[in-house]
Each structure stands twice: as structure tokens, then as C-alpha cells.
Design brief:
single chain; alpha+beta; six-stranded mixed β-sheet; 14 helices; elongated; disordered N terminus
Length: 389
């Protein structure tokens, strides 16, 4: 009888164990694959979430900007912004033949800035990219013209302080106006639009502070320092075929400019006081400036002939320095407000100033400051300045 074959039994057991191992291995592999798939899904979700956090808003905004319809929105706003910028850049090219339109635009040129936020609000409301980009032109133009006035350029000190004031023919309180001007403490004071009735009032009230003074027609100068060589200046106030037939005293009564010399510790200073002709806004003729323009041209000729080293012009020029009609004057003298002021220094009308038509212009001295004084009984604000040698 043969013994049992253990090898078969052993083989069978080994095969069983091997089968169980294979089954376990298969199960482990499936679990690994499931785990990997879960991890991949989680990674994808995390990536998507990160992308959702980082990119949607900028990408959406960028895509919206690229849409053609966005650029087509607000064509009127875009055109208005470009027109506004061109008017400010090319204001000198606007013709003056029709109602002095060019001078009118230049008189109120700083106020064109009020249209910029209005157009910007409209562009945002319409979501017009083209209109927003077009607004760069008027903003740049305005800043190039007036940005320098937004910075305070005044300096401490100064050798001489001066002021000029159109006191107003209809001033109800000339004595109070004189007291206010004395309180300013300036060394030299120019007055324009002095009437025959008010002249004695100003002379009386200012005499204690200003021992030296001169009045030539409707303009005068009061000074703490000596005056010499005073005379009236012809700025073509009397115009026409009968102008030369008027007696001298009649012409002097209506005189609107003078020249004198102020004696200072630093040397002589030639001072002009002038009140140029009025301007009128009339629906039929537009911006009427004939008298003012004629006076400005005559005064420019006088200044060009004056070879004095130090010259100062004080007065109501009835125009801003942007106005081309004053070019004959502004090409020879510098504005103290532009050189040493803080802001625009608007002087008219006194209740709500919108333009600086009262000017202090110099040559041969250095402005150290420029400011407006408190309101008086006049419809103009007094303007003052400090200068040094």
C-alpha cells in the first residue's frame, strides 16, 4: 500500500494561499485607483475654485471692454469731451470777429472744468469706454493751462506791498471802504472809478496813513512813500472826430490812467494805474469790448515806449489775462498772481467772483505773494501783492 502524497496537499494549500493573496492584491489595487481618482477630482475642484477666485472679475471686465457695443456707447458724450478739450487747447484760434466770441470764451476759460465731471458721470452711466478715454483730452488741456495756479507759490517777506481796488461809482459807503483798505496795511494803494462826489471822502480818510497821493481824473494812487513825475496817461478814452476839441479840464475829468514814480529804499519804481473801458454782453452784438480793446492797445503802446527798469501796472483791466485783447500788455509785464499767488484770485463780482479782471502786473521786480482782500462796498474785490528787488 503506497503512502499519501504530501506534495499534492501542500501544493493545493499553497495554491489556496496564493489565490487569497491574489484576491487581496486585487482589492488593494481597486482601492488605490479609487483613492487616486478621488484625489484627482479634489485637485481639479481646488484648481477650479482657485481659478474662480482669481480670474473671473478681471477676465469678465476685460472681455466686456473688448465687446464692440461698449465702444459704440455714448457717441454724443465722446464727441462732447473731444470738443471741450479742443476748445481749451485751441481757444486762441476762435475768431473774435463775430461778437468777440474768442474773448468771451477766454474770459471764463477756467470754468470749462465744470463740464468734465458732468461728462464723466454720463460716461459711467452709459458705460462708454470711448467717452472715458476722450475725457483725457480736456483734463490734460485744463491742467496744462491752469494746473500751476493750484499750487501756493507765495514766499515770506517782501520789500513792498501794493493793492488795487475799483471802489465802484455806486459804492454806498466810501468811508468804510477807505477804512478797510487802510486796515490792509499795504504801502501803495491804487483806486479806480473815483467819482467827484467821493473823491474828498477818500482823500480825507486815507490822508493819515498815506501822506502822498495823486488823483488824475477817475484814478488815483495813495502811497506811504514819496511820489514824483506824476502825469495823466492817454489811453484813447476820448475817441472820435470831436475828441481833440474837448477842453483840457474836460478831458482830465474823464481820464482813466496815470503814471507816477514811487521812491523806495531800493530805487525808483514806475507805477501805472489804469481803468480800461467796460465790456458788455449784449444779445444783439454779443460780447462788446470795443472801448476796452482800444484802451488796452493804447496802454500797450505806452508801456512799450517806457524804458524804465522797474515798472508796475495796477488797475481794473476789465479782462482776464487769458483774453487775447490784453496781449499788448501781458507780453511786456508779468502777473503777480501767476508768479506768486495761490489759486485763481478771482475779483469780480464781489459776491461770487468768477473772473480776475483786477490786475497787478510787474517788470523788473520779483513777486513774493498775491492775494485778495475782504469785500468792501464795491462790486469788485481788492487785490494785493508783495514784491521784492
Amino acid at each position: 500500500m503506497s503512502p499519501p502524497a504530501p506534495s499534492s496537499a501542500a501544493g493545493t494549500g499553497t495554491e489556496a494561499e496564493t489565490g487569497r493573496g491574489a484576491g487581496t492584491g486585487a482589492g488593494t489595487g481597486a482601492e488605490a485607483e479609487a483613492t487616486a481618482a478621488t484625489a484627482a477630482t479634489a485637485a481639479t475642484a481646488a484648481t477650479a475654485a482657485t481659478a474662480a477666485v482669481r480670474s473671473p472679475l478681471p477676465r469678465r471686465a476685460f472681455r466686456r471692454v473688448l465687446r464692440p457695443e461698449v465702444w459704440k456707447r455714448g457717441p454724443v458724450l465722446t464727441a462732447a469731451a473731444l470738443l471741450l478739450g479742443l476748445v481749451m487747447l485751441l481757444h486762441a484760434q476762435i475768431p473774435n470777429r463775430a461778437g468777440s466770441l474768442g474773448s468771451l470764451v477766454e474770459t471764463f476759460l477756467p470754468w470749462f472744468a465744470v463740464f468734465i465731471p458732468v461728462l464723466a458721470a454720463g460716461a459711467l452711466w452709459r458705460r462708454s469706454v470711448s467717452a472715458m478715454i476722450a475725457l483725457v483730452l480736456p483734463v490734460t488741456a485744463w491742467l496744462s493751462l491752469f494746473g500751476g495756479l493750484l499750487v501756493d507759490k507765495s514766499e515770506p517777506g517782501g520789500d513792498l506791498t501794493v493793492a488795487t481796488h475799483n471802489v465802484g461809482a455806486d459804492n454806498p459807503d466810501p468811508a468804510g471802504t477807505a477804512h478797510d483798505l487802510v486796515a490792509s496795511g499795504v504801502d501803495v494803494l491804487a483806486l479806480e472809478e473815483i467819482t467827484d462826489e467821493d473823491r474828498s471822502v477818500y482823500e480825507k480818510e486815507l490822508a493819515g496813513t498815506y501822506p502822498y497821493h495823486t488823483v488824475q481824473g477817475t484814478v488815483g494812487l495813495w502811497s506811504k512813500l514819496p511820489l514824483s513825475g506824476t502825469r495823466p496817461v492817454d489811453i484813447a478814452t476820448d475817441y472820435g472826430p470831436l475828441a481833440d476839441t474837448k477842453p483840457a479840464d474836460v478831458q482830465l475829468a474823464g481820464n482813466r490812467a496815470l503814471r507816477t514814480t514811487v521812491t523806495t529804499d531800493q530805487g525808483p519804481l514806475v507805477v501805472y494805474v489804469a481803468h480800461l473801458g467796460s465790456v458788455r454782453l449784449n444779445p444783439r452784438v454779443g460780447f462788446w469790448t470795443d472801448s476796452r480793446d482800444r484802451n488796452a492797445q493804447a496802454l500797450g503802446t505806452v508801456l512799450a515806449a517806457d524804458r524804465s527798469e522797474r515798472v508796475m501796472l495796477l488797475g481794473d483791466l476789465n479782462g482776464t489775462l487769458d483774453d487775447r485783447a490784453l496781449a499788448g500788455i501781458t507780453s511786456q509785464l508779468d502777473s503777480v498772481q501767476d508768479a506768486a499767488g495761490d489759486g485763481f484770485g478771482f475779483s469780480w463780482p464781489a459776491k461770487f467772483p468768477v473772473a480776475r479782471i483786477d490786475q497787478i502786473l510787474v517788470r523788473g521786480v520779483e513777486p513774493t505773494g498775491s492775494w485778495t482782500l475782504p469785500a468792501t462796498g464795491s462790486d469788485h474785490l481788492p487785490v494785493a501783492a508783495g514784491v521784492s528787488w
